[in-house]
């Protein structure tokens, strides 16, 4: 029988422990609002005793996001009265508040961190739970560093805090030391004893990714009786991060026959949540990251693209729509094969060529792809038009399409503190068009100058630049998102000159808009 797995999101507490990822109260509220849309069961909103700012953020989240029955709001406390008071005084505004207490259980923590005996630490933990219970009925106890603790002491702690009133027992693999088989066995043993002791207490896990096994350990725990999992969006968190929410949830969703479980998560909100967290925290998502990485649903090699065109399940185990994307992406590169290229032409309504003509076009395609890395739809128009010009003397219907695209001829950008300015020269059909602009910075000036030339009402909503190689000749890779008439256009370009890369990316986006909205009717 399928059972529910409770999803506890700690992006705003463990996730926020990432250096530089600190959010202000407004950003925390926005993320919490989005987590509610994602339908997580519990939100750990912060560590209220750490600063007045965090106390206020937790309080606002409790008031504004915790005001309905469908979400539990919690925050973390040490086994210290003032920390517990801070949690209580901030989460108490929620409809369903929970106090979360953490205290070490391994010999290393007990002896080295606290310099106390095991019995002393046990008493501190029990007293903390008893005190928290005088404030709220729901109390979670985290046995920090449980995976490195002596098992009988760990169990003695669990038994004592459950008797003191803890309603959730959380087993953390605090330093990501556990291995899936071993962690599964640990959870199995605890689950067995816990169900005999008090079957209303929820068994939870919290895994870290130091050896890259946070997701695997969390899933092993689910198989062995864990009822609640602690995760973060994009797997962010202390050091190598936590179990990634999207990976755990999509594994349970995709392989439910193995886990015999389900979660309440609205998977269609996964990408929105990932992008918001990455944007606010300034933490890029690794391109090949499972589920939320830029390439997770992008296919670029010919054999895969051919398989996908014939039947999507050849290389696709999750429909991208399930996680909130529009569709899979077939990226045309020099590794693409004939099936993918032909399909791309067909999608643009260009399939009037014979097989032998296509072979010639495909040679041109490979030449362009080798030079340009990624080939866009507007490149296909230009390519086909050039082909017909070459072989048939420019008398085909489609020959007027490329007259609508823009090409960069030259640019000059002056960056100074007072008036950063740019001038550009673009080509459209046989015309050379020039534009100038000032801006708040060099890229703003450059993009304003191009926009003046193209006269399109579009909005730049994201601009990312990164270096993709080392040294003086390093390539700058620019990725942008543009909004035009409510649609989002993503475009990329790379060049050793970052201003040129920025301009090429912008012009790629503009030409994609032209393909969709401004080409003459076929
Ligand atoms: C595994 C985890 O992720 S745990 C959560 C980690 N998160 C954080 O640390 C949140 C941010 N932290 C902070 O703002 C601060 O460290 C505070 C407010 C918690 C404490 O600040 P300070 O009082 O200045 O103490 P400091 O951080 O230097 O040292 C920690 C103290 O707490 C004690 N402590 C650590 N964990 C616990 C615990 N779970 N229960 C009780 N005491 C604890 C330590 O032994 C040390 O005590 P000592 O001063 O008697 O040696
Ligand atoms: C507070 C606890 C659950 C924690 O973050 C850890 O042990 O990693
Ligand atoms: Mg942690």
In short:
The protein is of the alpha/beta class. 42% of the residues lie in helices and 20% in strands.
Polypeptide structure, described:
It is an enzyme of class 2 (transferase). Residues 407-522 are annotated as: Regulatory domain. The strands form five sheets. An eight-stranded parallel barrel has the order 2-3-4-5-6-7-8-9, surrounded by seven helices. A three-stranded antiparallel β-sheet has the order 13-14-15. A three-stranded antiparallel β-sheet has the order 16-17-18. It has helices at 25-38, 52-64, 81-91, 107-113, 118-135, 151-163, 180-197, 214-223, 245-254, 256-259, 270-281, 302-310, 338-347, 355-372, 377-392, 442-454, 498-518, and strands at residues 3-4, 6-9, 42-44, 72-78, 97-104, 139-144, 168-173, 202-207, 228-231, 261-262, 298-299, 329-330, 406-414, 421-428, 431-438, 459-467, 476-484, 487-495. The protein has 17 helices and 18 strands. Helix 1 packs parallel to helix 2, helix 1 packs antiparallel against helix 11 (270-281) and helix 16 (442-454) runs parallel beside helix 17. It has three domains: 3-281, Aldolase class I (TIM Barrel, Alpha-Beta Barrel); 298-402, no CATH class; 405-518, Alpha-isopropylmalate synthase LeuA, regulatory domain (Double Stranded RNA Binding Domain), CATH 3.30.160. The radius of gyration is 28 Å and the shape is elongated. The model has no long low-confidence stretch (mean pLDDT 94). It is of the alpha/beta class and 522 residues long. Strand 16 and strand 17 (476-484) form a beta hairpin. Magnesium ion (MG) binds at residues 14, 174, 206, 208, 238. Residues 14, 174, 206, 208, 238 line the site of magnesium ion.
């Amino acid at each position: 029988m399928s059972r529910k797995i409770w999803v506890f999101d700690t992006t705003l507490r463990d996730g926020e422990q990432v250096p530089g990822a600190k959010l202000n109260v407004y950003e925390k509220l926005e993320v919490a609002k989005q987590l509610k849309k994602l339908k997580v069961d519990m939100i750990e909103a912060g560590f209220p005793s750490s600063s007045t700012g965090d106390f206020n953020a937790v309080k606002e989240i409790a008031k504004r996001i915790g005001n309905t029955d469908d979400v539990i709001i919690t925050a973390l406390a040490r086994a210290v009265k003032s920390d517990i008071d801070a949690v209580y005084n901030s989460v108490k505004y929620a409809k369903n508040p929970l106090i979360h207490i953490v205290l070490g259980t391994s010999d290393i923590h007990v002896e080295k961190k606290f310099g106390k005996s095991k019995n002393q630490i046990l008493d501190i933990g029990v007293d903390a739970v008893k005190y928290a219970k005088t404030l709220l009925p729901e109390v979670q106890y985290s046995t920090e560093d449980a995976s490195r603790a002596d098992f009988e002491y760990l169990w003695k702690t669990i038994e004592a805090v459950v008797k003191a009133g803890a309603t959730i027992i959380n087993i953390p693999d605090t330093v990501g030391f556990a291995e899936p088989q071993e962690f599964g066995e640990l959870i199995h043993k605890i689950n067995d004893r816990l169900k005999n002791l008090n079957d209303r207490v929820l068994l939870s896990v919290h895994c870290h990714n130091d050896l890259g096994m946070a997701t695997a350990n969390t899933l092993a725990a689910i198989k062995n009786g864990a009822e609640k999992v602690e995760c973060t969006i994009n797997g962010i968190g202390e050091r190598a991060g936590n179990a990634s929410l999207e990976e755990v949830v999509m594994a349970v969703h995709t392989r439910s026959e193995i886990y015999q479980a389900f979660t309440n998560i609205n998977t269609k909100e996964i990408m929105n949540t990932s992008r918001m967290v990455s944007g606010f925290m300034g933490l890029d998502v690794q391109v090949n990251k499972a589920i939320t990485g830029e390439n997770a649903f992008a296919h670029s090699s010919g054999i895969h693209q051919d398989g996908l065109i014939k039947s999507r399940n050849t290389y696709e185990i999750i429909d991208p729509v399930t996680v909130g994307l529009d569709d899979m992406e077939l990226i045309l590169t020099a590794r693409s094969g004939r099936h993918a290229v032909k399909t791309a032409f067909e999608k643009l309504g260009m399939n009037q060529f014979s097989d032998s003509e296509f072979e010639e076009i495909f040679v041109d395609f490979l030449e362009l792809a080798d030079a340009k890395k990624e080939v866009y739809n507007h490149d296909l128009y230009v390519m086909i038009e050039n082909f017909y010009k070459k072989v048939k003397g420019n008398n085909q219907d489609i020959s007027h399409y490329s007259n609508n695209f823009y090409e960069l001829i030259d640019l000059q950008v002056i960056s100074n503190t007072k008036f950063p300015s740019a001038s550009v020269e673009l080509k459209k059909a046989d015309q050379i068009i020039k534009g100038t602009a000032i801006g708040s910075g060099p890229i703003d000036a450059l993009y304003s100058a191009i926009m003046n030339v193209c006269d399109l009402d579009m909005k730049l909503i994201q601009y990312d630049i990164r270096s993709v190689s080392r040294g003086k000749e390093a390539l700058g890779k620019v990725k942008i998102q543009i909004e035009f008439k409510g649609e989002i256009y993503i475009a990329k370009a790379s060049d050793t000159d970052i201003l040129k890369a920025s301009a090429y990316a912008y012009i790629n986006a503009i030409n994609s808009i032209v393909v969709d909205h401004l080409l003459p009717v076929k």
